[in-house]
Write a structure and sequence with these properties.
Blueprint lengths: L1 E5 L2 E5 L4 H14 L5 H5 L2
Antiparallel strand pairs: 1-2
């Protein structure tokens, strides 16, 4: 899971398929103290 800072927001950088990227993000959120992608991006 990778992001690129673009102006005031974040752009997803998919190095494989979009479904792989989404699955990897879901795994990170599940096993991290963050409850959502938005919470993760605020760190």
């Amino acid at each position: 899971v990778d992001y690129e800072k673009v102006c005031q927001g974040w752009k997803k950088l998919a190095r494989s398929s979009q479904s792989d990227w989404t699955k990897n993000l879901e795994t990170i959120v599940q096993w991290s103290p963050y409850s959502s992608e938005a919470d993760l991006l605020q760190e």
